[in-house]
Design goal:
This protein is α+β, with helices and mostly antiparallel strands and 247 residues long. It is built from 7 helices and 9 strands. Among the domains are: 3-88, lambda repressor-like DNA-binding domains (434 Repressor (Amino-terminal Domain)); 159-244, no CATH class. The strands form 2 sheets. It has a 5-stranded mixed beta sheet, with no helix packed on it. A 4-stranded antiparallel beta sheet has the order 4-3-6-9, covered by helices on one side. A hairpin with a 2-residue loop joins strand 7 (221-224) and strand 8.
Length: 247
């Protein structure tokens, strides 16, 4: 689920229109529509885009870390040159059209280059006194080792465990779709903040309790202390839950 879709879903869940959200965030309605369509080019650069996203998340009652993580995943890994990044953030201006070079200048450069090359060849031929024979290529060919059959095996599904204790265990599996996760323990320590890809599993353990925020509740399955949990939400729904030793 894209960041724009997440913003749209959260806005509708909060019962707000585009104009309502615009009034509460002081962000233009036209820009909000672009952001919900996953277009952030008119935000004034990545710094301003993050500020708008945090503002929107706060007004919609969503943890800003979930929206910021989605923005960085979708927007920050785009293949852009350093020049594009500098222009976008108003650090530099687009270069003006290159000046046309006079044909006289080009002719002068060409003549000078030919002169330098010719002079270099003369110097090299005068200083060379020994002809170095070319090495004799080995006539024995080494057969390539056959590829190991293990090399064609698929990469195993990612599975990670984060532990700050042993009293509570939570297993999150992105069974149907990817989702954003934010997991913390009873002390407020962040155990995970980011995306879990479809088909992957992450396990968290702690002493007292685990607090979980899920950006796409309908796409994941939860198992708490060895017991599978019933569905906690719909596709695209942002849900916050907590589990303790007795869960």
């Amino acid at each position: 689920m894209s960041l724009g879709s997440m913003i749209t879903q959260a806005r509708k869940s909060a019962g707000l229109s585009i104009d309502d959200l615009s009034a509460s965030t002081n962000i233009r309605s036209s820009l909000l529509r672009e952001m919900e369509s996953d277009s952030f080019h008119n935000c004034g650069g990545e710094t301003y885009a993050r500020g708008h996203i945090r503002n929107i998340a706060t007004k919609l009652g969503v943890d800003p870390l979930i929206f910021i993580a989605a923005f960085e995943e979708e927007q920050m890994h785009a293949d852009r040159s350093m020049k594009d990044l500098l222009v976008e953030n108003s650090v530099m201006k687009l270069p003006e059209e290159a000046r046309k070079i006079s044909w006289k200048v080009l002719a002068t450069i060409s003549v000078s280059s030919l002169f330098v090359v010719g002079l270099a060849q003369i110097i090299i031929s005068n200083t060379s006194s020994v002809d170095i024979p070319a090495p004799i290529a080995s006539t024995t060919a080494t057969e390539s080792a056959p590829a190991s059959p293990e090399a064609t095996e698929p990469t195993p599904t990612e599975e990670a465990t984060v532990s700050t204790g042993t009293g509570v265990q939570l297993i999150v599996t992105a069974t149907r779709a990817k989702s954003w996760l934010f997991v913390s323990d009873a002390t407020g320590r962040t155990l995970f903040s980011g995306q879990i890809a479809r088909g992957n599993t992450k396990t968290f353990t702690t002493d007292v309790s685990l607090n979980v925020k899920i950006g796409n509740a309908g796409g994941v399955d939860l198992t708490v202390n060895g017991n599978k949990v019933d569905s906690i939400g719909r596709d695209g729904e942002v849900v916050s839950v907590s589990y303790g030793v007795d869960s």
